[in-house]
Fold:
Amino acid sequence: MKIPKRLMRHQVTIRRVVGEGSTGPILGDPETVRAHVEDGVTRVITGVDGQQETSTGLVILDPGLPPGPRSTIITPTREAIVLAVEVKDHPDAPSHLVVRIQ
Structure:
Protein backbone atom coordinates (compact mmCIF):
# COMPACT_ATOMS: atom_id res chain seq x y z
CA MET A 1 0.00 0.00 0.00
CA LYS A 2 1.35 3.47 -0.93
CA ILE A 3 0.73 6.87 0.62
CA PRO A 4 -1.90 8.73 -1.45
CA LYS A 5 -0.41 11.37 -3.79
CA ARG A 6 -2.58 14.10 -2.27
CA LEU A 7 -0.64 13.70 0.99
CA MET A 8 2.73 13.81 -0.80
CA ARG A 9 2.28 17.44 -1.82
CA HIS A 10 5.92 18.53 -1.98
CA GLN A 11 8.71 17.79 -4.40
CA VAL A 12 12.24 17.25 -3.16
CA THR A 13 15.51 16.65 -4.96
CA ILE A 14 17.72 13.85 -3.67
CA ARG A 15 21.45 13.59 -4.34
CA ARG A 16 22.73 10.28 -3.02
CA VAL A 17 26.31 9.71 -1.86
CA VAL A 18 28.03 7.58 -4.52
CA GLY A 19 31.58 7.67 -3.19
CA GLU A 20 34.20 9.43 -1.12
CA GLY A 21 36.67 12.01 -2.38
CA SER A 22 39.51 13.92 -0.78
CA THR A 23 37.12 16.76 0.12
CA GLY A 24 34.25 14.59 1.38
CA PRO A 25 31.30 12.70 -0.09
CA ILE A 26 30.76 12.58 -3.86
CA LEU A 27 27.10 13.16 -4.72
CA GLY A 28 25.30 11.50 -7.63
CA ASP A 29 22.91 13.02 -10.13
CA PRO A 30 19.86 14.83 -8.70
CA GLU A 31 16.55 12.94 -8.65
CA THR A 32 13.24 14.74 -8.04
CA VAL A 33 10.52 12.81 -6.18
CA ARG A 34 7.21 13.49 -4.43
CA ALA A 35 7.39 13.76 -0.64
CA HIS A 36 5.87 15.23 2.47
CA VAL A 37 8.17 17.71 4.24
CA GLU A 38 7.89 18.92 7.84
CA ASP A 39 10.34 21.56 9.06
CA GLY A 40 10.72 22.42 12.72
CA VAL A 41 10.29 18.83 13.95
CA THR A 42 13.23 18.62 16.35
CA ARG A 43 14.47 15.28 17.65
CA VAL A 44 17.76 13.99 19.04
CA ILE A 45 18.81 10.87 17.14
CA THR A 46 21.82 8.58 16.96
CA GLY A 47 23.64 9.02 13.66
CA VAL A 48 25.32 6.30 11.61
CA ASP A 49 28.62 7.03 13.37
CA GLY A 50 27.03 6.45 16.81
CA GLN A 51 27.06 10.14 17.77
CA GLN A 52 23.94 11.93 18.95
CA GLU A 53 22.75 14.60 16.52
CA THR A 54 19.77 16.94 16.39
CA SER A 55 17.36 16.47 13.50
CA THR A 56 15.45 19.66 12.65
CA GLY A 57 12.99 18.27 10.13
CA LEU A 58 11.70 15.18 8.40
CA VAL A 59 10.81 14.07 4.91
CA ILE A 60 8.40 11.22 4.19
CA LEU A 61 9.14 9.24 1.01
CA ASP A 62 7.85 6.15 -0.74
CA PRO A 63 9.75 3.04 0.40
CA GLY A 64 11.45 2.39 -2.94
CA LEU A 65 13.54 5.58 -2.74
CA PRO A 66 15.88 5.25 0.25
CA PRO A 67 18.57 7.93 0.39
CA GLY A 68 21.63 6.93 2.37
CA PRO A 69 23.10 8.83 5.30
CA ARG A 70 24.91 12.06 4.36
CA SER A 71 22.95 12.28 1.11
CA THR A 72 21.56 15.72 0.31
CA ILE A 73 17.84 16.50 0.11
CA ILE A 74 16.74 19.82 -1.32
CA THR A 75 13.28 20.68 0.02
CA PRO A 76 11.10 23.65 -0.99
CA THR A 77 12.63 25.66 1.90
CA ARG A 78 16.24 24.48 2.28
CA GLU A 79 19.06 22.12 1.44
CA ALA A 80 19.56 19.47 4.14
CA ILE A 81 21.76 16.51 4.99
CA VAL A 82 20.22 13.08 5.70
CA LEU A 83 20.99 11.96 9.25
CA ALA A 84 18.90 8.78 9.47
CA VAL A 85 16.28 6.81 7.55
CA GLU A 86 13.52 4.85 9.30
CA VAL A 87 11.42 2.25 7.46
CA LYS A 88 7.76 2.28 8.52
CA ASP A 89 6.01 -0.90 7.45
CA HIS A 90 2.66 -1.87 8.96
CA PRO A 91 0.00 -4.19 7.49
CA ASP A 92 -2.82 -1.69 8.07
CA ALA A 93 -1.04 1.50 6.94
CA PRO A 94 0.94 2.63 3.90
CA SER A 95 4.62 1.68 3.92
CA HIS A 96 6.95 4.68 3.84
CA LEU A 97 10.33 6.05 4.83
CA VAL A 98 10.85 8.75 7.46
CA VAL A 99 14.04 10.62 6.62
CA ARG A 100 15.48 12.73 9.45
CA ILE A 101 17.30 15.78 8.15
CA GLN A 102 19.61 18.43 9.59
